[in-house]
Specification:
591 residues; alpha/beta; seven-stranded mixed beta sheet; five-stranded parallel beta sheet; 14 strands; 43% helix; NADP
Length: 591
């Protein structure tokens, strides 16, 4: 049978095949988006072949002044454009010059969103080639301000809005979206946007931004991405009183009404897009986030970036930092400020990794991890009043009210902030960590920058340059005592784009915790000695697409190993296959 297959494929094994026909993730590449068809001429289809004014108004096919003379004649563009022909590289240079003249980050965000709606490939070319400069523009921290003002800057619809008014007809609403081959959905209900709270319908900026990163960093096709906001109202008084608010002007639905709407949504998504569509829950409030993940993880391909993505990227930073700190994860003691989605998600993944490496039960490995919430250290005497997701972290200890006292009592080697409250890692806190540890590991993960538990400068200065520091939002390099420290960014964007690509190319049907561990270990392995010398525990973002391809390959390999992958046969070289399936923003030649 093997030799017959080789004959059919011109002497090559089916396992060696690349994605030459553009069927990444088992879905036909209709628009010529993947790397595999980069050199092939394509036809600019919309409903019919796009031409003339229609072609210039279609962001997927528009190339602006890059249309050649031959293309302008063939597609009725002559006279609709100035006579000059500019290369994509020259267009990119021109736009970057314009963007750099803006002094207000929100102006840059609006300019990038306008470009995305005008010329999709050029938008992604800018983002991919200038990722470290533009990532803070299209995502955190700027996206937080964009969501706060989303009603004012709203232009063309960039995703689907499903509100309580659509109850009973959500499947019909999904069918209104023009693309039918969806592989990734990012959905929010806007109740807990970053550290900014309830922004209701204006939370749409988050799914839009996340999916831009799925494409730019992970190579998932833009046509396969669908941002969705579920509008069940808002408890934000300011928005309810705003005459220009774009969402439902009512208090948030809760309980059965909320559950029924989500149940209908999840069923409709599976019915419309199939078993393998990835649904990423984003910025749901704690009480809903845990319940939704627990409810649907056995029936749908679901992923919560706030719980699982954050956990995976932080675990990668911890595994990476071991090369500087020495020892194993089991040798360290962890203290968290914040016991919500992020805090408990990270804590659980650390416990699972220690359990996997030491063969100790996870109930035992959890005892190395302590959490502080708004009422103090989580201890067993508080069990009766704790939310269910905090209970596993209630260890035997006398009650401790303040973070500083908890540090003195627990003597952690690693301090992790996921509280969403800025300036909580005070001078005394950092100095105490530095007095207890030669190299204290301090992670201030809350977003945006204003909510960060401390700044990079504070961490390095108060620890006398001894801290290993990383944050959720970006900070500039810090000079202290003649040494330049480059703070790492524990950004979920390291993990979720490659993780999603891995699920897609393998046809994975369910997310298993071992897939997250595989992603973490792969990311940690990408850090070089040169990075460590600068104080970094994460690799630079400039290599993010290469990193994403390796993460995708590791996730896919683990999915095949666990029997969760449905895309058969398994490609022989998963890294090469992942790279061939990745979207590239290079302009295509039109027939």
């Amino acid at each position: 049978m093997g030799s017959t297959m080789k004959e059919m494929n011109g002497g090559g094994s089916v396992l060696d095949l690349e994605d030459k026909c553009g069927v990444g993730g088992g879905v036909e590449d209709m628009y010529g988006e993947d790397r595999a068809c980069e050199d092939q001429p394509i036809t600019p289809w919309t409903v019919s072949v796009a031409s003339g004014y229609t072609l210039l108004r279609d962001p997927r096919h528009n190339k602006g002044l890059a249309f050649t003379g031959k293309e302008r004649d063939a597609h009725y563009l002559t006279g609709l454009l100035p006579p000059s022909v500019l290369s994509q590289e020259l267009q990119e240079k021109k736009l970057m010059n314009i963007l750099r003249q803006y002094t207000v980050p929100l102006q840059k965000y609006i300019a990038m969103m306008d470009l995305q709606e005008r010329n999709e490939r050029l938008f992604y070319k800018l983002l991919i080639d200038n990722v470290e400069e533009l990532l803070p523009v299209v995502y955190t921290p700027t996206v937080g301000e964009a969501c706060q003002k989303y009603g004012s800057i709203f232009g063309r619809p960039q995703g689907l809005y499903i509100s309580l008014k659509e109850k009973g007809k959500i499947l019909e609403v999904l069918k209104n979206w023009p693309e039918k081959s969806i592989q990734v959905i990012v959905v929010t209900d806007g109740e807990r946007i970053l550290g900014l709270g309830d922004l209701g319908c204006q939370g749409m900026g988050i799914p839009v931004g996340k999916l831009s990163l799925y494409t730019a960093l992970g190579g998932v096709r833009p046509s396969a991405c669908l941002p969705i906001t579920i509008d069940v109202g808002t408890n934000n008084k300011k928005l309810l009183e705003d005459e220009f608010y774009i969402g439902l002007k009512q208090k948030r639905a809760t309980g059965q009404e909320y559950s029924e709407l989500l149940e209908e949504f999840m069923s409709a998504v599976k019915q419309n897009y199939g078993e393998n569509v990835l649904i990423q829950f984003e910025d749901f409030a704690n009480h809903n986030a845990f319940d939704l993940l627990a409810k649907y993880r056995t029936t749908h391909l679901v992923f919560n970036d706030d719980i699982q993505g954050t956990a995976s990227v932080v675990l990668a930073g911890l595994v990476s930092a071991l090369k500087v700190l020495g020892g194993t994860l089991a040798d360290h003691t962890f203290l968290f400020l914040g016991a919500g989605e992020a805090g408990t998600g990270i804590a659980e993944l650390i416990a699972l990794e220690i359990s996997k490496k030491t063969n100790a039960p996870v109930e035992e490995t959890r005892k190395k991890i302590w959490l502080v919430d708004s009422k103090g250290l989580i201890v067993s005497s508080r069990k009766d009043s704790l939310q269910h997701f905090k209970v596993p972290w209630a260890h035997e200890h006398e009650p401790v009210k303040e973070l500083l006292d908890a540090i003195k009592a627990i003597k952690p080697t690693v301090l992790i902030g996921t509280s969403g409250v800025g300036k909580t890692f005070t001078k005394e806190v950092v100095e105490t960590m530095a007095s207890l540890n030669k190299k204290p590991l301090i992670l201030a993960l809350s977003n945006p920058t204003t909510q960060s538990e401390c700044t990079a400068e504070e961490a390095y200065t108060w620890s006398e340059g001894r801290a290993i520091f990383a944050s959720g939002s970006p900070f500039d390099p810090v000079e202290y005592n003649g040494n330049l420290f480059v703070p790492g960014q524990a950004n979920n964007a390291y993990i979720f784009p490659g993780f999603g690509l891995g699920l897609i190319i393998s046809g994975t049907v369910r997310v298993h915790d071992d897939l997250l561990l595989a992603a973490s270990e792969t990311l940690a392995a990408q850090v070089t000695d040169e990075n460590y010398a600068k104080g970094l525990i994460y690799p630079p973002f400039t290599n993010i697409r290469k990193i994403s391809a390796h993460i995708a390959a590791s996730v896919a390999a683990k999915a095949y190993e666990l029997g969760l992958a449905s895309r058969l046969p398994r490609p022989k070289d998963l890294v090469k296959y992942a790279e061939s399936c990745m979207y590239t923003p290079v302009y295509r030649n039109y027939r």
